[in-house]
Amino acid sequence: MTRMIRMSLLISLAVIAPSGVQAAVTVIGNSSARLCFQAAEKEIPPQQGQIEACDQALTQEVLSLEDSVATHVNRGILRSRKGDVAGGLADFDRASALNPNEPEAYLNKALVLTTKADQAREALPLFTVALQKKTRRPALAYYGRAAANEELGNLRSAYSDYTNALSADPNWDAPRIELARFAVRR
Description:
The chain is built from ten helices and no strands. By secondary structure, it is mainly α.
């Protein structure tokens, strides 16, 4: 099984795990943008009406820049979960264009790219940017970057990133399982 397929399976499994995979961005209030955020947080396949709430927020509500960026990230998560990879990637790109400092846009784009064949080279720097911009899910960013590094043959970097993922979330078993495959020689 190739590394990217294994990462893809991990992402699919982690969507239903308590810690989740993708990083939704909080929106406060009682609006369609808030409903979009709540749907992205549920970590289950979305209903069409939930994506439509995101659409409505972006087209019919007056949102602050921060809420607009968050809603693009959250809609991108929902679209990606629904299988609309192109739509999800477009939303993450839009969020990054509106606010280049939003780490979750980079993290989520990298996660989606890891589910596509031969995208490790494109995903790798996005994980790094998410970490530099202080993502709320550093363990996931390190883990994704480790998988991308491993796919590209950068085994020392992969080992280091799996170790960092485990340090960032000692209760997450996935990095521990991956580290067990490595034999470190001095």
